[in-house]
Amino acid sequence: MPLEAGLLEILACPACHSPLDERNTELVCTGQDCGLAYPVRDGIPVLLVDEARRPQ
Q1: Which of the 8 DSSP states describes residue 51?
Q2: In the chain, how many H helices and how many E strands?
Q3: pTM given for the model
Q4: What dihedral angle (degrees, nearest 10) is formed by the CA atoms of 41, 43, 24, 8?
Q5: Is there a contact between 36 and 55 (Cβ–Cβ < 8 Å)?
Q6: In the predicted model, what is the mean pLDDT of residues 4-9?
């Protein structure tokens, strides 16, 4: 389930404050040095660094 366009525009990575990009069931940080991927559960973004998947 995609997020509302307006919501995605105002969300930012809690770690580096870069914009987020929606990919499948995650919001991925667009920052070059960050790249954390935050899960979206039941349509709600979980923007906790402890819950994020590290880049590979």
Answers
A1: G
A2: 1, 4
A3: 0.87
A4: -120
A5: yes
A6: 83
